[in-house]
């Protein structure tokens, strides 16, 4: 099994300070969707945030909410905290700004990792997505060393890791929605994702109604 870590810190400047974890898609928040998906393959769930109280009402007691050991140091600090307290050897790390994360993709990456790799990171549509990656627990020590030395970027971490790149072809032909790498950074992103979600739901509803009509006829 995997540990699951959701990074819910940051200043959310693109959303005018609104916590992206609490944005809604349909009837559920991003956070609710992520926890539901992670429960399919994770027996250990952690949320890392610099402001726990708004999130506490959205989770049950089986989810741990923790804060950074290195406050104000960005996403690497959140990863360090989550990996340090993870109960399993491998941890699936996601950003709270990703509404379509995929447990199927995470499990596929885990089984496809080479034994000498510290991490597995997907590349979809020619873009790496480190915040839907699988990381070895030992990465916490590497991140801690980087933060102590003043390095705070994901690029600095990737330069230190032996990581496996999971090409898009790995996910194609399987029941994995390629939107699992979708990220929402701004209100424009959020509006686009919401419109696409509503359109897909309307299309599905129309197809169901047409199927019922054809069956009844």
From TrEMBL:
Keyword field contains Translocase: no
Entry keyword set: Cytoplasm, GTP-binding, Magnesium, Metal-binding, Molybdenum cofactor biosynthesis, Nucleotide-binding, Nucleotidyltransferase, Transferase
GO MF term list: nucleotidyltransferase activity
CDD domains per UniProt: MobA
Pfam family, one: NTP_transf_3
Domain of life (superkingdom): Bacteria
InterPro entries for the chain: MobA-like_NTP_Trfase, Molybde_CF_guanTrfase, Nucleotide-diphossugar_trans
Keyword Metal-binding: yes
MobA-like NTP transferase domain ranges (all copies): 4-150
PANTHER family listed in its UniProt record: MOLYBDENUM COFACTOR GUANYLYLTRANSFERASE (PTHR19136)
Protein name per its UniProtKB record: Molybdenum cofactor guanylyltransferase
Organism in which the protein naturally occurs: Paenibacillus spongiae
């Amino acid at each position: 099994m995997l540990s699951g870590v959701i990074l819910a810190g940051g200043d959310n400047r693109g959303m005018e300070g609104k916590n992206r974890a609490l944005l809604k898609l349909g009837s559920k928040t991003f956070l609710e969707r992520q926890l539901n998906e992670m429960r399919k393959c994770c027996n250990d769930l952690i949320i890392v945030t610099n402001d726990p109280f708004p999130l506490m009402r959205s989770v049950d007691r089986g989810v741990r909410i923790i804060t950074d050991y290195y406050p104000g140091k960005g996403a690497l600090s959140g990863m360090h905290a989550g990996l340090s307290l993870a109960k399993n050897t491998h941890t699936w790390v996601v950003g709270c700004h990703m509404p379509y994360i995929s447990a199927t993709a995470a499990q596929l990456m885990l089984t496809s990792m080479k034994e000498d790799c510290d991490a597995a990171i997907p590349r979809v549509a020619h873009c790496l997505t480190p915040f839907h990656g699988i990381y070895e627990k030992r990465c916490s020590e590497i991140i801690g060393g980087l933060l102590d030395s003043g390095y705070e970027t994901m690029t600095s971490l990737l330069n230190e890791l032996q990581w496996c790149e999971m090409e898009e072809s790995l996910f194609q032909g399987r029941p994995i929605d390629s939107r699992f790498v979708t990220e929402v950074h701004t209100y424009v992103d959020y509006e686009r994702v919401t419109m696409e979600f509503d359109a897909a739901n309307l299309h599905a509803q129309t197809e169901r109604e047409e199927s019922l009509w054809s069956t009844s006829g």
